[in-house]
Amino acid sequence: MHTLVLLGLVGLLAQLVDGSLGMAYGVTSTTLLLVIGATPATASATVHLAQIGTTLASGASHWRLGNVDWSVVRRIALPGAVGAFAGATFLSHISTQTAAPLMSGILLLLGIYIVARFTIWQPRRGQLGKPVRRRFLAPLGVLAGFIDSTGGGGWGPVGTPALLASGRIEPRKVIGSIDSSEFIIAIAASGGFLVGLGTSGINFAWAAVLLVGGVIAAPIAAWIVRVIPPRVLGSAVGGVIILSNTRAILAGELVTLPGTAQIALYTAIALVWGAAITWSLRAHLAERRATAATEGHEPDPTAAETVQAHDSSTRS
């Protein structure tokens, strides 16, 4: 019973983060399942089954709040489903733990880029609103879907920074679109695990508890992503990517550091991340004040017409 309650809380917190930042539900939940003794394939299969419900709730919440670009969802979801199914069947027979640190290294570089971009400068205004090309979305979907299944999570960490880096979609719609398309990915991955493992490879009780916690958090997360300023949201997303993938690299065999050095590294990352969010928030407030001042000094056309009409009537 204690394990089920803990899993419910994890599902709630994981979905709260995932729905507001576009990532981390699968990574967080899979990590806990591995800690309590699940095999990688069983953990990923259980989490993806739960995600069928959580991603449906999250996508519906984002849709109601206008956070979804459906053209992006259509172009990335089907290739992603192909990658997710292939990754699930692959993981059912072969472990990919050796490749995880290398994948995390790529994601770490993307996270650093995102933090720099949204902290130091905004996405190019000329690019915002332009359609994202299919030849970019299709390979991205296949790669993100494959990593998501084999790593127990990855659709958000791969898809979100790539779409943010394009500069063509505002952050809230990037997150809403990634979360909505993940529903298709979860179905495809679950189908792959059922083919590779059968029903005995999935803990349905764990999946149900994770689902309940995630469904409760989905509408709250969709509201959070709507009200957070884009610059602050971009810096926050980048920080999550950096921290989560630094931890994955240090947990693997690619890089080894003593305990003291790891603590110093995590502290440095946290300080830089906090400074980036603070800088982005101040920049957003400064921009808002500048916009308000500009609008306040613009002449009111209605008032000018009224004065002109009054002068004309007086002269006549």
TrEMBL record:
<keyword id="KW-1003">Cell membrane</keyword>
<keyword id="KW-0472">Membrane</keyword>
<keyword id="KW-1133">Transmembrane helix</keyword>
<protein>
    <recommendedName>
        <fullName>Probable membrane transporter protein</fullName>
    </recommendedName>
</protein>
<feature type="compositionally biased region" description="Basic and acidic residues">
    <location>
        <begin position="290"/>
        <end position="300"/>
    </location>
</feature>
<dbReference type="InterPro" id="IPR051598">
    <property type="entry name" value="TSUP/Inactive_protease-like"/>
</dbReference>
<keyword id="KW-0812">Transmembrane</keyword>
<comment type="similarity">
    <text>Belongs to the 4-toluene sulfonate uptake permease (TSUP) (TC 2.A.102) family.</text>
</comment>
<feature type="transmembrane region" description="Helical">
    <location>
        <begin position="204"/>
        <end position="225"/>
    </location>
</feature>
<dbReference type="InterPro" id="IPR002781">
    <property type="entry name" value="TM_pro_TauE-like"/>
</dbReference>
<feature type="transmembrane region" description="Helical">
    <location>
        <begin position="263"/>
        <end position="281"/>
    </location>
</feature>
<dbReference type="Pfam" id="PF01925">
    <property type="entry name" value="TauE"/>
</dbReference>
<feature type="transmembrane region" description="Helical">
    <location>
        <begin position="100"/>
        <end position="120"/>
    </location>
</feature>
<feature type="region of interest" description="Disordered">
    <location>
        <begin position="290"/>
        <end position="316"/>
    </location>
</feature>
<feature type="transmembrane region" description="Helical">
    <location>
        <begin position="232"/>
        <end position="251"/>
    </location>
</feature>
